[in-house]
Amino acid sequence: MASAAEQLASSLSLETFSKATELKKRILFTLGALIVFRLGTYIPVPGIDATVMAHLMSQNGGGILGMFNMFTGGALGRMTVFALNIMPYISASIIIQLMTAAIPALEQLKKEGDTGRQKMNQYTRYLTVLIATVQAYGISIGLEGMRSNIGPAVIHPGAFFIFTSVVTLVGGTVFLMWVGEQITSRGIGNGSSLIIFAGIVAAMPLAIANMLQLGETGAISTLFIIGFFIMALVVIAFVVFMERAQRRILVQYPKRQVGQRMFGGDSTHLPLKINTSGVIPPIFASSLLLIPATIVGFSKGTGPAWLQFIAHELSHGQPGYILLYAALIIFFSLFYTAVVFNPQETADNLKKYGGFVPGIRPGANTATYFDTILTRLTAIGALYLCIVCLIPEVLIGQYNLPFYFGGTSLLIIVSVTMDTVAQIQSHLLAHQYEGLIRKGRGKGRGK
């Protein structure tokens, strides 16, 4: 008879999945929540002319609006109740995390366990409402000034429209924030990431169809389309490899005797990921670079000459855009990694519990050792982010691909997929443990 270890080492079969009732409930809940999100991306904000908005987005979709419209699954282009998506919540989370490293009171609050975490979450919610209100007000004011060849974007501009628009957009963001928290606690995966993931994936079928249609008309060669899909698979495999890659530092604990019992003497590993900063550097870098192009797009070419020059140099495929994009990614990778990982604190914790790195003295020397390794890993991770993010930008700029599907979206899709699959496997493994324990108890009673 196979041992329990051999049974756990076997592959997770469909039969195991069919018996995991709790997992199926979580998956169904997650799918239901994402369906609600997709339905909300088609409910328009009151007072908006949808035809005019579609025409304006076709003219100004190449700047930052195109990127955020991709993240929202087209909700921004249609100006629906979820036009802001969950991006204000993501921005608030990043700001709170950065402030934690700079403000001692927040850093102390973070160390208070579950109580501190709940307070931090509450601060994040308040900041989300503030950011969403400012963005919604700016969008509402901007919408009143938008006009295309077929008419204005707002049917009846005025104070009432601004009020209803701000309330609707902020309410949509707060609702999505709540949905994301519910997915995290009652579903599978990280709720906020899955909402952004659903918005990006929803736009992919239409984008692929547009590319194939261009291939049929001869605007893009068939060989290029085949090469594009092959390259996409290669890049995805490369992203998966790099996201899973890590440097494992050996940490040992000395033996100590308490009474007549011996404790310690174990060894473990401290994993340091190559890409510690995740998708934060590309998001920050692309947002900063696309602002000039968006301003010029709204000015209809009537802005100052220097602004027109900057917008041209920072457009897709231009050397200035590529160089500055790479520089910003490297900068934000180093900066954000320094914020989320403190070598001195890690070294102090190891010293406190008696752990040490073989060949390195505890304390300051260990902190310096961690900092050196992390700097080298971050440099490799920043180079990896540059490669993944710049390849799609070159294709978009040089070959005028019919959709904005850059490296940021690719990183989000791969990272969220890997995280969700890992959680599903954890639930299946836990279900197998429970089954084996029940079998073992039943056999024990039989004897």
Task: Give the low-confidence spans.
Answer: 1-12
Architecture (CATH level 2) name of the largest domain: Orthogonal Bundle
CATH C-level of the largest domain: Mainly Alpha
Main-sheet strand order equals 1-2
> What's the rounded overall pLDDT mean?
79
The coarse silhouette is globular
Query: Alpha-carbon distance between the termini?
Result: 16 Å
Largest β-sheet summary? 2 strands, antiparallel
Structural domains: how many: 2
SSE order in H/E notation? HHHHHHHHHEEHHHEEEEHHHHHH
Task: For this entry, give a set of tags.
single chain; 447 residues; mainly alpha; Preprotein translocase SecY subunit; 2 domains; two-stranded antiparallel sheet; 18 helices; globular; disordered N terminus
Describe this structure in words.
- With about 450 residues, the protein is mainly alpha-helical.
- It folds into two domains: about 20-220, Preprotein translocase SecY subunit, CATH 1.10.3370; about 220-405, SecY subunit domain (Preprotein translocase SecY subunit).
- The protein is built from 18 helices and six strands.
- It has helices at about 5-10, 15-20, 20-40, 50-60, 65-70, 75-80, 85-100, 105-110, 115-145, 160-185, 190-215, 220-245, 280-300, 305-315, 320-340, 345-350, 365-400, 405-445, and strands at about 145-150, 150, 245-250, 255-260, 260-265, 265-275.
- The strands form three sheets. A two-stranded antiparallel ribbon has the order 1-2. Strands 3-6 form a two-stranded antiparallel ribbon.
- Helix 3 runs antiparallel to helix 10, helix 7 packs across helix 9 (about 115-145) and helix 8 (about 105-110) packs across helix 9.
- The longest helix has about 40 residues, at about 405-445.
- The two termini are about 15 Å apart.
- The model is unreliable at about 1-10 (pLDDT under 50).
